[in-house]
């Protein structure tokens, strides 16, 4: 299945891109994260939440959408 | 009133809406990059009661984005300096400046006096404190946060909507997410995000449009991409905050614990040590401290003079009363310069102490 993964803030700095298109064969969102962790070593050190088709979800959710977003918290003001 | 004519002629607002604005009470926490535009637009709009909480002082590096301040505000408390500017913008409203740090001790009583709380702070500790206090006092929270070229906006705790903890349960580990002073920020970005926050405040008061509740707006200033993500309320998380209410007041803020070891007294025998003394007052301020090896580096220009600060020596900073020097120590800490202390006493007391020491030594000889 082809999905688009979007990255925000510090996460985009770790991946050096704001989005990418990936071929995914797993079941859960956590499976996708495992793929991303092995691709981007520093990702594991970052805090973020995951949205599937623009909706915040737990990483144990089944991956059914075509768009996943990795959203870190921002402190600045 | 002709001041509000452009509001009143809008059929969606009218005189009735303008009256709602006048009767509203909004508390803005943090008069920085986000707080400044929020305060400016709420004041101009005629929100009748506005509170400003900020313990910090205006520094030269703030002026790139904190649009309420000018060079005449340097060294002044932000809440007070903002109030002074806003009074000139609109003298018909009540503005209260709280030149103090928001803590678990004062938050609840303060929030109870207002209808809407705006988060314009720059650290997670304050953001979670504000979120939890909003849950406990049942106040809507207009949230904004920025990172370099990106911003996040949402309205939490509004009509049984989600809270910030429903989005990010706990604060990330300290030091893992940098703030603006550590990593930089595009000056106009907090202007955009703060204006969006002001817009949400006005919509809530006026009861028009769709309030940004249950959603997080992510804005990217470089690509102009807006992404709206849906957030669900998590009842269990909110309930646990409510159940923890009794211990809320007892929680200590880390900042207050830190203060104690950032401050020293001139009487702690520091003069004998191998110390770099730094006078952070502006060059015209009197009296000058003689008899010690003092570097003159005004707080307003401190960040441009980091090279004048010794790497190896202990640093003791002072000013007129020990307030600015404490801010200076924090500023150096942010710039990764450690082993700095603020002398609690002001310049006059320090001079007095030096004289006493000289008297003692001349008596001995």
CATH architecture classification name of chain A? Roll
Number of distinct helices of chain B: 14
* Mean pLDDT figure of chain A: 96
Regions with little confidence, pLDDT below 50 for 5+ residues of chain A: none
Q: Which superfamily, in CATH terms, is the homologous superfamily of chain A? A: Beta-grasp domain
Helix content percent band of chain B: 25-40%
The N- to C-terminal Cα distance of chain B equals: 77 Å
List how many beta strands of chain A DSSP finds: 5
Q: Which structural category fits the helices and strands of chain A?
A: alpha+beta
User: What is the CATH class name of chain A?
Assistant: Alpha Beta
Placed side by side, the strands forming the largest sheet of chain A appear as: 2-1-5-3-4
Strand content of chain A: 25-35%
Q: What's the domain count of chain B?
A: 2
Might you state the CATH topology name of the largest domain in chain B? Rossmann fold
Tell me the helix content of chain A: 10-25%
User: Order of helices and strands of chain A, N to C?
Assistant: EHEHEEE
What's the N-to-C terminus distance of chain A? 39 Å
Any idea what the shape of chain B is? elongated
Name the chain pair with the biggest interface and residue counts per chain: A-B, 21 and 42 residues
Number of helices of chain A: 2
Oligomer: heterodimer
Notes on the structure:
The complex is a heterodimer of chains A (77) and B (365). Chain A is an alpha+beta fold and 77 residues long. Chain A has one domain: Beta-grasp domain (Ubiquitin-like (UB roll)), CATH 3.10.20. Chain A is 23% helix and 30% strand. Chain A has a five-stranded mixed β-sheet. Chain A is globular, with a radius of gyration of 12 Å. The model of chain A has no long low-confidence stretch (mean pLDDT 96). Chain B starts with a helix and ends with a helix. Chain B has helices at 5-8, 14-23, 35-45, 78-89, 107-112, 124-137, 164-167, 180-183, 188-206, 235-243, 245-248, 254-262, 324-334, 347-364, and strands at residues 25-29, 49-53, 94-98, 116-119, 141-147, 150-156, 215-220, 226-230, 263-264, 275-279, 294-296, 314-318, 340-343. Chain B is elongated and about 80 Å long. Helices cover 37% and strands 17% of the residues of chain B. Chain B is an alpha/beta fold and 365 residues long. In chain B, the strands form two sheets. In chain B, strands 3-2-1-4-5-6-7-8 form an eight-stranded mixed β-sheet, sandwiched between helices. In chain B, helix 3 packs across helix 9. Chain B folds into two domains: 2-251, NAD(P)-binding Rossmann-like Domain (Rossmann fold, 3-Layer(aba) Sandwich); 256-364, Oxidized Rhodanese, domain 1, CATH 3.40.250.10. The relative contact order of chain B is 0.11. Chain B has 14 helices and 13 strands. Classes of the chains: A alpha+beta (77), B alpha/beta (365). Chains A and B meet through loops of A and strand 5, strand 6, strand 7 and strand 8 of B.
